[in-house]
Amino acid sequence: xxxxxxxxxxxxxxxxxxxxxxxxxxxxxxxxxxxxxxxxxxxxxxxxxxxxxxxxxxxxxxxxxxxxxxxxxxxxxxxxxxxxxxxxxxxxxxxxxxxxxxxxxxxxxxxxxxxxxxxxxxxxxxxxxxxxxxxxxxxxxxxxxxxxxxxxxxxxxxxxxxxxxxxxxxxxxxxxxxxxxxxxxxxxxxxxxxxxxxxxxxxxxxxxxxxxxxxxxxxxxxxxxxxxxxxxxxxxxxxxxxxxxxxxxxxxxxxxxxxxxxxxxxxxxxxxxxxxxxxxxxxxxxxxxxxxxxxxxxxxxxxxxxxxxxxxxxxxxxxxxxxxxxxxxxxxxxxxxxxxxxxxxxxxxxxxxxxxxxxxxxxxxxxxxxxxxxxxxxxxxxxxxxxxxxxxxxxxxxxxxxxxxxxxxxxxxxxxxxxxxxxxxxxxxxxxxxxxxxxxxxxxxxxxxxxxxxxxxxxxxxxxxxxxxxxxxxxxxxxxxxxxxxxxxxxxxxxxxxxxxxxxxxxxxxxxxxxxxxxxxxxxxxxxxxxxxxxxxxxxxxxxxxxxxxxxxxxxxxxxxxxxxxxxxxxx
Length: 572
Ligand code: TEU
Prior knowledge:
Blueprint: E1 12-15, H1 31-36, H2 38-44, E2 48-51, H3 79-91, E3 95-100, H4 110-117, E4 129-130, E5 157-160, E6 165-168, H5 183-198, E7 203-206, H6 246-258, E8 264-268, H7 274-281, E9 290-292, H8 315-328, E10 336-337, H9 347-350, H10 358-370, E11 375-379, H11 400-411, H12 416-426, H13 463-468, H14 473-486, H15 488-492, E12 494-498, E13 505-512, E14 515-522, E15 528-531, E16 542-546, E17 558-561, E18 566-571
Parallel strand pairs: 1-2, 1-11, 2-3, 3-7, 7-8, 8-9, 10-11
Antiparallel strand pairs: 4-6, 5-6, 12-13, 13-14, 14-18, 15-17, 16-18
The structure holds 1-O-alpha-D-glucopyranosyl-D-fructose (TEU).
């Protein structure tokens, strides 16, 4: 039975506008640049575009610090350009999902300007203002109202001299947290969402939405939390996620704004477990359609460390975690499927084999992700096999999270080569170098000077070369998307992991109504030989997709796979 939920067979493409395509030569991507590239998305075959923030912003966190929720920042263009983009997408049968960043605003948002102007301003309680800790000199270390830490280094509280109180910011001081306990705040957000829906948007990606419910004590204080070093967030900022009223707030938002509309909603949920996700995404609970988990992208963090404390990934850990999410949401709820976004390093450099097997590893990682049960997300450039930036100097980085951490780490005496290495592996700027469109100077991204350096490997890694090469990563993504659009077993089939203990091969079977899809991938630099047991018979099924079309293929149960070789067989 086809689900009424169109987003279950859809593929989403994330655009980080600042780095996608510049149309006016200022070195920063913009909306008209996106409009110029819609044919690329059409050829890839994606159904939805998730657009990272384009709203007015001082750009402290590249637009995730919003000073006006209902306009377009002139650096990206105008509301008219946005309407033209929406029309251009709808004309191609595609949809637009906006980034909803409402855990916090910019400190330049009028709401915060009013709130901070005086203790009795009507909007004072739209944010979290608290007195200094008793017995401490205000503004000195230890006087913060609680021990919460910010995600971009430092305490989560900043002292405001004018009114003698601290305000809360889980991210930078330029990103004060909204107080969702206040019904006026919730109503204002709901009204803003309603107006975006009226402008024609088709859904929302909700930025750190599981942080909006804070653990408030009866006396209104935000109590200390145990300092756990690296938290589930993948950074050392202990505070509450999945707070006591989160489901109430999301359900209220659903009932007030989302109900009865065929929108796509995805909640970015750092620290959420699959048990939490079942509560967030069970349709009977009417909260959101799916969540972004962080568990799999935190598997290469040293135990108890932060994202900067590097550890190698164990494939069996990745298979176990992804399978737990597949099984955990099999009966009720829905998965998002992603390797990349604007906050994560690029997968082919992180867990692929960029040097020796860049194309095959990019293809095989995409294959194992896209044929699982859930909605796949493709991040700009991932479909071309773009790599990390390979910066060699701290000064090359722009991202507030990287810049702040590097300064703090060097201050703490961490050797510079360790800082440079951690940044090269994990900085969010790895995802933010301009999209590589062709081999021309600046990769066809801009005629000016790009805000962040274009990767020199754009001379060979670019969309134009990929489109011309039938064996490219691009065409492999295009075929994966076709399989999802054409095969019910990909959308609705159940999932069964094979070979859980194998450290080279990721293999699973999807099954629905008699159809069975075998996905088998060697995610290692060495040849692999595995015995699929009774499932080996599925190797006789039609070969739908492979990285190695010329490989000799036996008929199981043993299968020999070249480094990074993957195959997809359909038995129906
Ligand atoms: O990300 C929240 C978040 O948890 C990440 O910043 C995470 O801590 C980081 O990726 C670990 O390296 C969202 C947005 O995606 C991010 O771009 C914003 O900076 C952040 O919220 C604040 O809005």
